[in-house]
Description:
Helix content is 11%, strand content 38%. The protein is mostly beta strands. The protein has five domains: 152 residues, Galactose-binding domain-like (Jelly Rolls, Sandwich), CATH 2.60.120.260; 106 residues, Immunoglobulin-like (Sandwich); 249 residues, TIM Barrel (Alpha-Beta Barrel), CATH 3.20.20; 89 residues, Immunoglobulins (Immunoglobulin-like), CATH 2.60.40; 96 residues, Immunoglobulin-like.
Amino acid sequence: MTRSIYPMNQNWLYGGEATPESTEIGFDDSSFERVTIPHANTLLPWHSFDDRDYQFISVYRRHFTPLADLRGRRVFADFGGVMTAATVFLNGERLGEHRGGYTPFTIELTGHLRWDAENVLAVEVDSTERPDIPPFGGQIDYLTFGGIYREVSLRAVPQTFIENVFAQPVNVLDARRWVDVRCFLAGLEPIEAPLTLAVALRDEERVLARQTTALPARTDLTDVVMRLQDLGEVDLWDLDTPRLYTVVAHLMDGEKITDEYTVRIGFRDARFTPDGFTLNGRRVKLRGLNRHQTYPYVGQAMPARVQRRDAEILKREIKCNIVRTSHYPQSPHFLDACDELGLLAFEEIPGWQHIGGEDWKQVACCNVEEMIRRDWNHPSIVLWGVRINESRDDHAFYARTNEIARGLDPTRQIGGVRNFFDSELLEDVYTMNDFNPNYIRPPHHPLYLNTEFVGHMFPTKHIDNVERVQEHVHRHARVHDMLAGRDDFAGGIGWCAFDYNTHADFGSGDRICYHGVSDIFRIPKPVAGFYRSQCDPAEDVVLEPAFHWSIGDKSEGGGPGTGLICSNCEQLKLYIGGELRAEIHPDREQYPNLAHPPFTTDQLTGLWGQVWSDLRIDGYIGGQKVVTKRMSARGVDREFYLEPDDAALVGDGIDATRVVFRVTDEFDAARPFATGAVTLTIEGPGEIIGENPFALTGGVGAVWVRATQESGTIRLEAKHPVLGSRIAEIRVTEAQPEGI
Ligand code: GAL
């Protein structure tokens, strides 16, 4: 029998605030709420709440009877992430504590389990902002929320087992490439039986290479490196072809497999050089955004599908090639999706400006190790961030974080984000937040990546007037243009992908920083059109006006006037009221370096007192009309859309999908001032995560729908007070039972 992993996300009992007795075995938890993990310790409005509402110590309990097959094996409870500190009890006995909400931890249950009886796993979850744990101790511009917000599982392994595997492709661009597979063993006892380790590189079921090693009989062996070579042809992992392989390690006792560990890898050569960033020997200008993994209503407690969706939005809708996981290690599901989609990632440790005392630094050093050991096989990750975002220099501390990272992973370069230019560089890449709006300062170090720009310098909402919305687009475009103009800039990662909840000391006064290219519901603002438009038209033809169509929203009226249109077409023809107004080309004067400069025009005008007419824009490539966009002059909300991201969910009580509301004109153009309370009715095996009724803002909004633990069809009806009802149906399929 090899290892067994039992997901343990259903049937938790949640009791709200913990009491001194609530972790005891005999505690009466009959009044507790039955919940599934990921779980938020409290549900919140999407804005204007008090973050103290989630800052408390709560208790979770899970009753279970160990299966007979766990006997004789070592049993661990694996926690993906508990915000921010967790103390774990089994049957009332305190087994351990983990400090830090963004990294996984394991508690060994072996020797404490009661056989043939019910056991109670209780977790006391401290979601206060404890100054002894990063990122706390100062002020931070984001919220951390609370709860057991990542998956839990029970793992049973033999006495000696594989603890981790780091498979490192080496010499990737050479036909004689190989993979060094470092297997970490735990619990090794004097070997009596002839234990062997066998590793194999696989492409699905096909084995490309294998290697076996007999383990010497010694007690202090913790890791073994084995080389897989003569691989034959392999496909490289690249942005358009993110090819993945697996490495499987078997621990064997004679012919019997006693443990198995599988990781996914990709063959890619990624490096920051004085001439920019290269992937597989080809220079790639990095164009990306920072992402917080927080969502409306539940903070970070969103399941795999929803976490993965953010990577899809970044890669497929906003056309980024890199994301920074600001400012902490993010959901493994998100990183898996980055691997599968070909989206590069810069991952960093938790922290924001503040450096705490020795104890705090110790947690930060653990965070470096936990992050790297969790994520070192992801081909998407090309840089580790080992400084506290925007902190001061601290030589001794950062010498330690660098040393830990280099010791664990010799294959990747290291960065660490700072916000001043004369900071001591112990890392490889000078990763720098440069918010200077009009120019990027020259790098002081040959390897340079701009890791934040625009952000708080220009918060922008759907409902802002047309001048501000267009300037928002220009600001992102200007920085990318400057970065594109110099080979020694690796590129830039703008602030940020999505609006996010924050403390009252930041943001617009409603607990939100409106810094996103998309709003908090992941609905794009006009600036997202700029990012989209930088893709090759063979991938997607993009034509996104950066304005809504009105005569009087800008100062002095007369239409948007100087209009900005993001497109990867070669030429645009603008028609107002059916009459050709202008033929325009990409604005290479303002944007000499971009692959697809935005178009600008001063012809989008109307006269105050005259009839305001519809706008039509035709886009041309190679002389052919390839796209048309229309915007109505009627000034009426005409369409109401209800759009689920997914047609089907799994009925495990966990799976969820976003459902977007959108009001448009008759041509599908956004109506940013549309309001109205949308009333929702749900039937079937689903529940709404969000506000009901939902008051539209900016003509848009969203809730999430979570499947219950049944199958069938969810029927969601959304009623707009003027535009009527829309219905969405989501199928829910039967889930695999958890088994414990
Ligand atoms: C940076 C910081 C980010 C965010 C941003 C707002 O200084 O690193 O977390 O606060 O400013 O623009």
